[in-house]
Specification:
3 strands; single chain; 50% helix
Length: 148
């Protein structure tokens, strides 16, 4: 659901507000099985704990395979982003990273929560994750906001 709302800071445009989205147990269980990843009850933030820069190809290929439902894609994108965050890749020139950013832009309704989370709007970029500037650009360009 996409609702346009009034932006109190700027009368000239409307934010695109999307409801918050969260990982589901079913999506985590499915992805853990698909990728043979650990999945125990004491894992908090599973989607970040299982991130692996060496498996970015596998994760992206699964994402674009049309074999995942929206909940699985949502959780997997979080894992992909964390994997890039942990990688030593030069994101400015990395083609996989550019493709991932395009996947986010093409699926704003699905990933608005993710984009807004990683954008860290209230923080100085020097204090943020290395992927934050890219996600912040997407958030600003698309006027994204999440609502409870």
């Amino acid at each position: 659901m996409n609702k346009k709302i009034y932006d109190q800071n700027n009368e000239n445009f409307m934010n695109k507000a999307y409801p918050m989205r969260y990982p589901t147990r079913a999506a985590i269980d499915s992805l853990a099985k698909r990728f043979d990843l650990p999945n125990t009850v004491n894992m908090q933030d599973w989607e970040y704990e299982v991130a692996d820069p060496n498996r970015i190809d596998d994760f992206i290929n699964a994402y674009i395979s049309n074999q995942l439902n929206e909940d699985e894609k949502f959780v997997l994108m979080e894992t992909i982003l964390q994997s890039f965050e942990e990688s030593t890749k030069n994101l400015t020139s990395d083609q996989q990273w550019k493709s991932t950013l395009q996947l986010l832009e093409n699926n704003l309704a699905l990933h608005a929560t993710t984009i807004c989370y990683w954008a860290l709007d209230e923080e100085l970029l020097e204090l943020c994750w290395k992927i934050t500037p890219y996600l912040r650009e997407i958030r600003i360009r698309n006027h994204l906001k999440t609502i409870e």
